[in-house]
Write a structure and sequence with these properties.
The protein is about 45% helix and about 20% strand. It has helices at about 25-35, 55-70, 85-90, 105-125, and strands at about 5, 10-15, 20, 45, 55, 75-80, 100. It is globular and about 45 Å long.
C-alpha cells in the first residue's frame, strides 16, 4: 500500500495514498500501524482523505488497531474521512467508538490533549498515600 508518512515531534501522520482499501490490504495496513507501538513516539494520526472506498474488514481492523493503541496508552486518531468512508464506519457501528476528527489539525490537538492527560494521570498515580 502506498502511504505518505510525516513524522512530527509528538506523533506520526500516516496517509494512505490510495482511493480504495480492499480487504486484501487489511493485514498489511494493520501490521504497519501496530508497528508504531514500538516506536519512541507511538502516537498516530491516520489521515484517510484520499480514501474513497473501504472494505468492512478494513474498517474493523482500523477500529481494532485504534483500540490496541488506547490499551497501550497511546493516541490513535482518524481524520479527513470523505462522506462515503465516514458512512461506512457509521453503517458498521464503528464511528461512535472511534476517535475521529474532520481535519488533521484537530487530530493534532487531540493527540496533544491526550498527552497532557496522560502526564496528569501519571502525576496523580505517583502521589504518596
Amino acid at each position: 500500500m502506498n502511504v505518505k508518512i510525516d513524522t512530527k515531534e509528538k506523533f506520526t501522520v500516516i496517509k494512505p495514498e490510495v482511493s480504495i482499501i480492499p480487504a486484501i490490504m487489511t493485514e498489511d495496513l494493520g501490521e504497519m500501524l501496530l508497528a508504531y507501538l514500538k516506536q519512541p513516539v507511538p502516537h498516530i494520526v491516520l489521515n484517510l482523505s484520499c480514501v474513497e472506498l473501504i472494505d468492512s474488514v478494513a474498517l474493523e481492523k482500523i477500529a481494532a488497531v485504534q483500540q490496541e493503541f488506547y490499551e497501550q496508552n497511546c493516541s490513535f486518531i482518524v481524520c479527513g474521512m470523505v462522506e462515503n468512508v465516514e458512512k461506512a464506519f457509521d453503517d458498521n457501528d464503528l464511528l461512535e467508538v472511534m476517535n475521529v476528527t474532520p481535519t488533521e489539525s484537530e487530530a493534532w490537538d487531540i493527540v496533544q490533549m491526550e498527552e497532557i492527560e496522560r502526564e496528569l494521570m501519571s502525576d496523580f498515580d505517583e502521589e504518596p498515600s
